[in-house]
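Quick start: what a row looks like.
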Amino acid sequence: MSLTLARFADLDDLENVEAALGSFFADRIERSARHGDAYRNLWVAARDASAGGKKIRPALVIATHRALRGENTHAAIDVASAFELLHSAFLLHDDVIDGDLIRRGRPNLAGARLIEAVDRGVPAGQAAAWGQASAILAGDLLIHAAQLLVARISGPEGRRRALLDLLDDCVFVTAAGELADVAYASQIEPAALAEVLAMSQSKTASYTFEGPLAAGAILAGAAPEIVSGLREFGRTIGTAFQLRDDLLGVFGEEHETGKSAVSDLRNRKLTPLMVVARSTDACGRLDSLLGADPFDEAAATAVRELLVDCGARSSIEGLIAAQVRRAVEVIDLSPFPVSLRVPLRKIIIEATDRLG
């Protein structure tokens, strides 16, 4: 299963978000042409990198706004688009940090630019630097664009300020999570399970669930207790979503996830899955397998088998189940209207039931 806009909002909403994003990129591509082919091509590549995907974040903004009887549909589309641009930016930066050249089953922006440069006779090292610089700049531009979209929405000034503060918090917290992820993976800082779980929540839950859900409520003029309840729900189910994503990053099928099932292992990402495994007697064997050179599919298969045998995978499944129970409690204890409770329960299922 995968979260999609069509599951929680009308197909017209999906088309409106796609149209808004299309107009945004068309404008940027046209404006960039006056600054040379390289810059125009960067915006074309940014548009292509943002195409596709499951549109989770726009879905949550629009569904929440509609469930709370919001009437500012145009603003909801713009804010939904902003969160999608933010997501695209973080993916671009994340791939550079991880050294990945593939995203959604095809060369990502850095990878495509590298290939283009090599085809033109540029040495591999310089081509790689060109690809990385392009991805970093594109990500920076999309973060700025997301903020601009929100700043320009119509409606009460107080809501616009609240949305800008929310978006700022999403960027701030996500960056903290990304930095912690690199610190733990590089062994610059030691980390126990609690710290790595907090990192996972910061890196993904904030801008994938907490932010979009709260944004839809703020746009609808919801009461503060509704917004705070949605933020807690978002943090909780977002953590479960990231835990599931960590499992997919190791046990998922690349043709379904569109992401390498070897990259996280090769980069020794210190996910909760790996923290649990390292707390068992399998730690020494795990380090030996992860140190294989080259680290190929055979080595990855051996690691996967060890993660199952030592009980790490089942432990993460237990953590996901605990987060789901807490998310249900938040729904039951918060003053959400029935119109909101129904989609929230669907979100729980869609966010966590993605791996057999």
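That is the whole record. The chain has one domain: 5-352. The first helix runs from residue 5 to 8.
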